[in-house]
Amino acid sequence: MYIHKSRPDLTFNVAQLLREEIGARRSYTFTESRLSLDETMAMTDLSGKVRFTRTASGVLADAEVSGTIEMECTRCLTPTPQHVQVAFRDEFHAKVEVNTGLALPKPDEEDPFFINELHMLDLGEAIREYGLMALPMRPLCMPECLGICPTCGADRNTEPCNCQETAGDDRFAALRALLNE
Prior knowledge:
Elements: E1 2-4, E2 11-13, H1 15-19, E3 25-36, E4 42-54, E5 58-72, E6 79-94, E7 113-115, E8 120-122, H2 123-133, H3 173-180
Parallel strand pairs: 1-3, 6-7
Antiparallel strand pairs: 2-8, 3-4, 4-5, 5-6
C-alpha cells in the first residue's frame, strides 16, 4: 500500500492491527518532503518503507528510509547535500488497550516509543532520532576536497593559495630534526 500525505506527518493508524493476533503484519511505503531533525537541520525528499508487526505490547516497526541532509563540508565549510540511509527496528508500545480503552502498564525499557491513545503510531520521531545517529561524522563536499588555507583562509578548491609553508613552532624543531634523519 502506498500512502502520500500532503503535510509532513508520519503517523499511521494501527488500531486495526492492534485488534489482530500477534504476528499480524502491515506494510507501507511513504514519501515526505521534509522532516526537521533539530533547530537547524532537516532531512528532505524522504522516501521509505515500513513493516508493522503486531507484538504482545504493541507494534514492531521495521523501517528503511532515505533522504538528503544539507551539511557543511568539514574541510572547506561549503554547504553540501549528504544522502542518508536510515534503517531501524524498534517497538512502539500501546498506551491503552484497543478494545476496552483501559490504560496499559508502561514498558520496562528506557525511553520507549509509544502509540497514542487514538492508536496512532508516529514514525517521525523514530526517524528523527535514528537519522541523527546516521549522519556522517565528517561530511565532505567531495572526497578530494582541499579545504581552507589555514594562513589566508582561501578555499583551495576554487582559488589558488599563494601562502608559503611556515616552518612551524620552534618548540618542535628537535622533533622535526628526528624526522629529517
